Here is the input.
Amino acid sequence: MCDVHTHGMNKNGLVELQMVLEYPKEAIAYIVNTVSDRIISGEIAEKDGVIIEGIFEDGAKIRLNECIDAYGEKVFRIMIPDGKFRMPEDSDEYPYNLQDKSPYIGNYKIGENDEDN
Here is the structure.
């Protein structure tokens, strides 16, 4: 797992992005930069659960999950599906199934009770 995140989106009144899935550096840069550019341009709505298309050539869709990172900051975590197009909560494929359990996040979504996590 990794902890890649943007810096400066909050200066535009937006929420920072985070990616925790270990991928090649070039792919991570492409995904994070493309998603941030599309949010800044207004093409993508900045909201929990939004599905994003057009990132991967194979048609895989990614999702933004609103969560708290390890530093207590609200972020939108970029969730990448596994090779069978399953999101982490439905996948048993390592490391895709760990994206919502990464040590680099607070392991809970906004609004969930901290005592349950």
User: Anything to note?
Assistant: The two ends are 20 Å apart (CA to CA). Residues 107-117 have pLDDT under 50 and may be disordered. Residues 4-107 form one domain.
